[in-house]
Amino acid sequence: xxxPSNLIETEIPRVVLRPIEYLDAxxxxxxxSDERFPAQLPLSERVRTGQHKVWxxxxxxxxxxxxxxxxxxxxSTKERCIGQVGLLMDKQTTKLWLAYxxxxxxxxxxxxxxxxxxxxxxxxxxxxxxxxxxAVGQWNERSSGLLTRLGFSRSGYPGPGYELNGExxxxxxxxxxxxxxxxxxx
Length: 186
Ligand SMILES: CC(C)(COP(=O)(O)OP(=O)(O)OC[C@H]1O[C@@H](n2cnc3c(N)ncnc32)[C@H](O)[C@@H]1OP(=O)(O)O)[C@@H](O)C(=O)NCCC(=O)NCCS
What we know:
Layout: E1 8-9, E2 15-19, H1 24-32, H2 42-48, H3 52-64, E3 70-75, E4 79-89, E5 96-102, H4 111-125, E6 131-137, H5 141-149, E7 153-158, E8 162-164, E9 167-169, E10 171-177, H6 178-184
Parallel strand pairs: 5-6
Antiparallel strand pairs: 1-2, 2-3, 3-4, 4-5, 6-10, 7-10, 8-9
Bound molecules: coenzyme A.
């Protein structure tokens, strides 16, 4: 059966990306409340401070306005929003920033790699993006490993860091350009 056109298929059967919805806020809470989910991420802080619902609303609005936004990862007919992947545009630099998370119970199966690959592919092939960036905490080896496996490189520059509980978090900038992605995935 052909899926509705607002879904992005991944290379894994039945694992699809669909546009973020208001009800996904509850799934974010579930994932972040798992003790394996890193507490030092902005998403964890959003849940702790109750800001995640407002964040979801703002992402739904971005999507409605046709702006870069988030997609939720569904295992069709089984489980909704096991994680998310998104692209956000920095208004000043116009850089497209990639972000993603997965419920820890689904880690270690290649699901997030497939989800990120599907969105990056969509951005380069359908949205004609030229470069995609990601900012990764130096401690986050699972995340940097995922990006490296997909062909991203370290730019050598720091990413936009963030402050959490009065502590500054430094990130590394990763990137990939359209030609490299297409050559790698031809
Ligand atoms: C970062 C994160 C998404 C990675 O999740 P993940 O499940 O490890 O990612 P992948 O989908 O790439 O899976 C890789 C693992 O699956 C295994 N795997 C199994 N089958 C696989 C397949 N067909 N293809 C690829 N990997 C496969 C790999 O061996 C690897 O296992 P390992 O980590 O034990 O070596 C997850 O740790 C997460 O949500 N973290 C919190 C949020 C976060 O840090 N976001 C990024 C902020 S920059």
